[in-house]
Amino acid sequence: MRVSVGDIELHVHEQGQGRALVALHGGPGLDGSVWWPGLDPLGEEGWRILAPDHRANGRSEAGDPSRWTVPQMADDVEELLGELDLREPVVMGWSFGSFVAQSHMARHGSAAAYVLMGTVSGPHALHEVFDRLAEFEPEHLRAQVTASWEREATVQTAADCKHLMDDQRPFHVADPEGPLVAWLRENDHVVYRPEVLRHFAAGGEYGMTDLRDALRSFTRPVLVLSGAHDRTTPAASAQELADAIPTAEHVVIDGAAHMIPYEQPEAFLAALRRFLATV
C-alpha cells in the first residue's frame, strides 16, 4: 500500500483487519518487513498491522534529504494516521523506530498508546556502544562486529548494507553463536537503503535526542520492552526513560538481546497482548 504524507509517499506493509497497530521499523536503512513473522499472531487476532517504511527507507520515496530527520518521520506518522483515518491506534517502535515513536509522543501524542522496544533514554547510550563492542564475546567475532559498525557511515550499496548487517547480527542476539543468527540472515527480506544509513550513522546518534523532559507530563499508556542482554540499547537506559514517563511500564525479557520478537517470541507476544488488552 502507498500512502501520501504530503511531499512523498510511504510504502506501508499491511496484515490483518481491526484496530490499527502502527509498527515502526529500526535501522535506519531497513524496512517494515522486519516485523514479520514476529507479528503474524496479532494480525490473526483482530489487529491491523501497518508497518510503514520510513521516508528514504525500504520502498518509500526519499524526498528532500534535508527532511531525513527523526522529527519529520514522526510527523510522517501523524500524517499517516490522518490519511488512513485510524481511530485509537497504537504506535509501536523498535530501535530507531522507537526514537521516531518517542518523537511522535512529544510532538503529537495522538495515538491511544505506545510501545517502545529496544529503546534508550538519550544519545549517550548510543555513544557507549563502542565500549560494549570492546568487551563483546566471543572474542573471535569482536573484530567482525566492530568493523560492521564502523562501515555504517560509509556504506555505498544495498548489497554492502546487507553484508554489514549480516556481520553485525551476532551482537544483536543474546547467543552470538546460536542458530538464530543464521535464521535471521536467511529470512532477511529487507530492501536496504544505504544512503539513509550513511546519513544517520555519521554522527553516531542516529537522529536521537533526549526527550525525557518533554515526556514527563505524558498521559497516554506506554510499554517499554527491553531484552535483558541487549548490547545495542541497554535495558538500564530504557529504565531511565521509563522512570521519566509517568504512565510507562518497563518489561525486561529474559534470554533476549535486541531481537526480542525472534529470540523470545512467546514472552514478547505475552507482554504485548497483556498491554494491548488494557488500552
Structure commentary:
By secondary structure, the protein is an alpha/beta fold. Helix content is 38%, strand content 16%. The protein is built from 13 helices and eight strands. The chain has helices spanning 40-43, 70-83, 96-107, 124-127, 129-134, 142-151, 158-168, 179-186, 194-201, 212-215, 235-244, 260-263, 265-276, and strands at residues 2-4, 9-15, 19-24, 47-52, 90-94, 113-117, 222-227, 248-253. Strands 1-2-4-3-5-6-7-8 form an eight-stranded mixed sheet, sandwiched between helices. Strand 5 (90-94), helix 3 and strand 6 (113-117) form a beta-alpha-beta unit. Helix 2 crosses helix 3 (96-107) and helix 6 packs antiparallel against helix 7 (158-168). It is globular, with a radius of gyration of 17 Å. The mean pLDDT is 97.
Helix content: 25-40%
The shape is: globular
N→C terminal distance? 27 Å
Q: Using only CA atoms, what is the Rg?
A: 17 Å
- How do the helices and strands follow one another from N- to C-terminus? EEEHEHEHEHHHHHHHEHEHH
User: Biggest sheet, open or closed, and with what strands and sense?
Assistant: 8 strands, mixed
Strand line-up of the largest beta sheet: 1-2-4-3-5-6-7-8
Strand content: 15-25%
| Average residue-wise pLDDT | 97
Low-confidence stretches: none
Helices, by number, come to 13
Task: Count the beta strands.
Answer: 8
